């Protein structure tokens, strides 16, 4: 399955997808400062996801189960690469993994694991999806992203005690 750029949340059914699509379409539309290219990418993503999601009340399709299992596996593997580090905070927001704390000593390991530094958020992040190089539109606060996609903190291994 092609990696998504804009529709990166997890959607239970077509109604959830439709809500996210219309919200993003408002932001990415050329009349609101977006671009035609961004709208075309969003429309293609919507068509692909719409075919794989069940209508409200329908059972989950086999393709959807397999896609969710693949996504879950990728996120778990990315977490396993960093969970052993100490003095960092790991938070999963939607399908993104965000890391902050004392990361300077492990920055090369984070890069090797596929994480990218966000200058705006002052955090490292990972997502199994392709991300756009240039995003034109209103930036959301980190708290807004938490509310929109849900978030959970991941416990890292405790630092060894010095006796």
Give an account of the 3D structure.
A hairpin with a 4-residue loop joins strand 3 (116-118) and strand 4 (123-126). The protein has helices at residues 14-28, 36-52, 62-80, 107-112, 142-149; strands at residues 88-93, 96-101, 116-118, 123-126, 151-154. The mean pLDDT is 79. It is built from five helices and five strands, in the order H-H-H-E-E-H-E-E-H-E. By secondary structure, it is α+β, with helices and mostly antiparallel strands. It folds into two domains: 8-60, no CATH class; 62-157, no CATH class. The protein is globular and about 55 Å long. Helix 1 runs antiparallel to helix 2. The chain has a five-stranded antiparallel sheet.
Write the SSE topology:
Layout lengths: L13 H15 L7 H17 L9 H19 L7 E6 L2 E6 L5 H6 L3 E3 L4 E4 L15 H8 L1 E4 L9
Strand content: 5-15%
Give the end-to-end Cα distance, rounded to a whole number of Å: 51 Å
If strands are numbered along the chain, what order do they take across the biggest sheet?
3-4-2-1-5
* Major beta-sheet overview: 5 strands, antiparallel
Number of E-type strands? 5
**Low-pLDDT ranges:** none
Radius of gyration: 18 Å
Overall morphology:
globular
* Helix amount: 25-40%
- List the secondary-structure elements in sequence, H or E: HHHEEHEEHE
Structural class: alpha+beta
**Count of the domains:** 2
Mean pLDDT over all positions: 79
Number of alpha- plus pi-helical segments: 5
């Amino acid at each position: 399955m092609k990696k998504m750029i804009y529709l990166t949340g997890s959607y239970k059914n077509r109604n959830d997808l439709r809500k996210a699509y219309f919200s993003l379409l408002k932001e990415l539309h050329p009349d609101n400062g977006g671009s035609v290219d961004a709208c075309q990418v969003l429309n293609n993503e919507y068509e692909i996801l719409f075919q794989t999601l069940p209508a409200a009340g329908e059972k989950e399709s086999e393709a959807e189960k397999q896609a969710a299992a693949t996504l879950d596996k990728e996120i778990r593997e990315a977490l396993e690469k960093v969970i052993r580090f100490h003095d960092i905070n790991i938070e999963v927001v939607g399908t993104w993994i965000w890391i902050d704390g004392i990361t300077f000593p492990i920055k090369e390991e984070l890069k090797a694991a596929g994480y990218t530094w966000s200058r705006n958020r002052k955090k490292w992040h990972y997502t199994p999806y392709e991300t756009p190089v240039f995003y034109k539109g209103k930036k959301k606060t980190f708290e807004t992203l938490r509310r929109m996609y849900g978030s959970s903190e991941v416990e890292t291994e405790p630092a060894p005690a010095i006796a």
